[in-house]
Design goal:
By secondary structure, this protein is α/β, with parallel strands linked by helices. The protein is about 35% helix and about 20% strand. It has helices at about 45-55, 70-80, 115-125, 145-150, 180-190, 200-210, 220-235, 240-245, 250-265, 280-285, 330-340, 355-365, 370-375; strands at about 1-5, 5-10, 30, 40, 60, 90-95, 110, 130-135, 155-160, 170-175, 265-270, 275-280, 310-315, 320-325, 340-345, 345-350. Strands 1-2-10-9-8-5-6-7 form an eight-stranded mixed beta sheet, sandwiched between helices. It has a six-stranded mixed beta sheet with strand order 11-12-13-14-16-15. Helix 10 (about 280-285) links the parallel strand 12 and strand 13 (about 310-315). Helix 6 packs across helix 8 (about 240-245). The chain is globular, with a radius of gyration of 21 Å. Mean pLDDT is about 85; it is low at about 1-45.
Length: about 375
């Protein structure tokens, strides 16, 4: 069932969850949180899920390949919450995380499937529940998805992307949410354990919110700002997190940014679109590592008349395209229709096997289709 963009669904020992803002007098359970005002949640048999998690379990938290701040923050935030309840928790990412997030508490305990496949699979096969955080399709986690699909344990998905695949037994999905970290906060509130949102949990969730909203520029809401205020009141040092995340670049990253803006930027005035490309030689010349290109695409949107930004990079076996937009322009539609990708209305990504130049040409060729939307 979906109400006001929020989807709750699932089954686990008779468990189901849904919104019902109309039949207040017939509610089995009513939970009204000041932090949620004015939302009222109706949860049928929610005690089944709470009972399942009230006993120490072997749990595994997973997130998507090339984890960003939201993937890392939601995973670590959930980890630090669950271990307070006596659970044995393992965390698994398909690939490594950017070094800029190396300060986050317990991030060094994450298993990286690419380098530790046997250990990761062993953790999954002895788990009693798997959490899928910040992704809504098992395809997003490659081989890990195949292993999870074979398991006979319940799956809990918490995610804010469009069009979930429906693979999970329990789903908390709200595409209008700023981030999965926002939803993890909501989940802990739903579990009636807000007191366990300590500064460590709060730092992880704040970091993911901070990065996915671009320092509170995208997908914000009154509900989000209430959450952020609550996290600060609980002891999160927001200035420290801003400094750790955004003021820790290496010299080569600034040099790379300068190269992108001076030598690899193209502006298409007729479509209010900016493009930055990087080829394999660029990757070798600047020794580009995971996380070094994070945020470069957003610099295109600093130009007054640019409404669509594309960052197209030549990887060893694939070409990646990262899209951003302003206002009501949906780059998610472009990514899904032409580049086998998706994401959010103003931030999406995709890929191509056609080579760098052919991919750039294809992107340019589809822009006329969206000209009316661009100039609306």
């Amino acid at each position: 069932m979906q109400v006001d963009g929020v989807i709750f669904e699932g089954s686990l020992g008779g468990f189901s969850l849904r919104f019902d803002p109309c039949t207040k007098s017939h509610l089995h359970i009513i939970l009204f949180f000041k932090i949620f005002a004015p939302l009222i949640l109706y949860m049928e048999n929610f005690t089944d899920l709470k009972a399942f998690l009230s006993i120490p379990r072997d749990l595994v938290l997973t997130s998507h390949r090339n984890p960003d701040g939201d993937a890392i923050g939601s995973t670590l935030g959930m980890y630090h919450y669950l271990i307070q309840n006596g659970h044995s928790v393992k965390m698994i990412f398909p690939s490594d995380y950017p070094l800029v997030f190396g300060w986050m508490p317990a991030v060094d305990e994450v298993l990286i499937y690419d380098s530790e496949p046997d250990e990761a699979e062993k953790a999954l096969r002895r788990s009693q529940m798997v959490f899928s955080l910040d992704y809504n399709s098992l395809e997003r986690i490659d081989k890990l998805g195949e292993i999870i699909a074979e398991l006979k344990v319940p799956i809990t998905m918490i995610d804010h992307h469009l069009y979930p695949d429906g693979f999970a037994d329990f789903s908390l999905s709200r595409p209008s949410a700023s981030s999965t970290c926002e939803l993890v906060y909501d989940f802990i509130q739903l579990m009636d354990q807000a007191e366990q949102i300590n500064p460590t949990v709060g730092e992880c969730l704040f970091a993911g919110i901070l990065t996915d909203t671009g320092s509170f520029k995208y997908a914000t809401s009154p509900h989000l700002f209430r959450i952020v205020a609550d996290l600060v009141e609980r002891g999160v040092d927001d200035y420290k997190l801003q400094d750790l995340i955004f003021n820790s670049m290496e010299e080569k990253q600034l040099v790379l940014l300068g190269h992108c803006l001076a030598n690899r930027m193209e502006i298409l005035d007729e479509y209010k679109t900016g493009i930055i490309t990087l080829n394999r030689r660029d990757y070798e010349r600047f020794d580009i590592q995971r996380g070094d290109t994070e945020g470069i695409v957003n610099f295109l949107l600093k130009i007054r008349n640019v409404k669509i930004a594309a960052f197209i990079t030549e990887q060893p076996t694939i070409v990646k395209i990262s899209l951003r937009s302003k206002g009501d322009i949906s780059v998610q539609e472009i990514a899904q229709k032409y580049f086998k990708g998706g994401g959010h209305k103003n931030a999406s990504g995709g890929s191509s096997y056609k080579g760098l130049r052919a991919t750039v040409d294809k992107f340019k060729s589809v822009l006329p289709e969206f000209k009316e939307m661009i100039f609306a």
